[in-house]
Each structure stands twice: as C-alpha cells, then as structure tokens.
Amino acid sequence: MIRGTVNSLFTGRSELLDRIQSAFRVEKASGAKEQKRFVITGLGGQGKSEICLKAADLMRAEPVLGRYNANDPNFDYKEYLPPGTQGAVIITSRVPDCSRYSTVGSEALEGLDPKHSIQLLLKAAGIPEELWPSYDQQAKDVVDLLGSHTLALIQAGAYIAKGHRLLEQYPEEYHRQRKRLLKYRPNQAQSRYKDVYATFEVSADVLENSQSETAHDTLGLLAILSMLHSSALSLQIFEDAWEGSRQTLCADYAGVDEVDVLG
Known about the structure:
The protein is α/β, with parallel strands linked by helices. Helices cover 49% and strands 8% of the residues. The longest helix has 28 residues, at 235-262. It is flat.
C-alpha cells in the first residue's frame, strides 16, 4: 500500500492522473487477468512520487501499491514486483528502461507547463490567490529561470515566503547566489530529496558506483557541461554529437565489412 499524504502544494498533472485512473479502471472492467502496472519515469525532483500519492488518494476504493525511486540502472527491479495477476502498481524511476514493466501505460515525466509552474511558485511563496494576476510576469521570470523544475520552484517559493527576498528580487539573488538558493530547504513538508542539489547528487552517486563505460563517459560529459552556461547548451549541440557518433559508428562497421571481403 502507498503510504503518505499528498502535499498541499500539489499542482497540475490532471491529464496524467486521469490517464492512470482510466488505465486501471478499464483493465478492471475488461476482466483482463494481468497485474496492472503504470510506470512514471523522469528526472529527480519533478514530482513522480507526489503523483503516485495523488493517484492513490484519488483511487481510495482500490488498493494501490507504489514502488518509489527505482533509480539504479544496474539493478533488476523485477524481483520487487508482487507475484500474481491481481492488484494495481505504480512504479516511479529515473531509469527510462523501467517503463518496460508497465502493463497499462507509462509516462516520461517532464516539467510542469508554464501555467501550473506559475501557480505552484505562487502557492509556495504564500501569495494569496486573489493577488496572483498582479504577480504573473514576476512569477514567469522565475519560472523561466528555473526551467519549470518542480522542486526548484517549491524551494524558490519557500525562500520568498520566509521573507528573504521579494518575488521580483529572486532572479537577481539567484544569479548571485545560485548554489545557496538551490540548497535552501523549507522547514516543513520537505521533498524526499530535501533540495535540488541533493536530487542530482543521487544520480551522480549512481554513476560513480557503476562500472559501465557509459556511466564513466556520462560523468566526464557532466564535468565538461558544468563549465558552460545553460544558455549555451542548445539542443542542436546534442543532435550534432549524436549524428557524428552515428556516422563514425557506421564508418567503423563499413571498414570491418571491407576487411572481411578482402579476407
């Protein structure tokens, strides 16, 4: 059974929650003899576990089992799945491959949409809802700055709610003291990972403990990217790198084929 209460700041995700409920109920109505499993994957701090809690709360009439944080890519989580064909299971993971455990659907979770990101920030900042329209542009500036990352928005709102800075002052403060702000933790209703830095440190620890070549290469790439400003990291850089790697690999295979022909 999923244990825990839904965070009072929970915002948005209604379409995904509808999908989860619909997937479980349709399978139940059809009488299919298969365990119902829905998998949510994505970056840490995006709210995967909170969605799990919210879905379980909405489906109180049906027991739902949650498997949080299946985050080690080198571990086989199959042994943690309950036996039999009964029950509803929601799995959350940072590992995209875990989506293979789904039987009724999966979701690669991304950041909140701009509208709900702004609402979440203003809620966390303790700004009365009737005043939200007058703070819309200031909130949008912070949302753009933080990339709609759920935990980062909650931390920013908590920092503002404590009176450390006004909403319109947060971007300037962030540019001056980015590390300190991303490590800020509210006193109550903390995230499982406590702060944004911690949630990414968990991923880095998994890579460091892995013996795979891919993990080693990923850490090396992260070290390089950490020296660049986010504005310099366009999607085109990664697309060009992928295409270059693909062409190199194809050329290598072609060379091997030619050697085989000559032999």
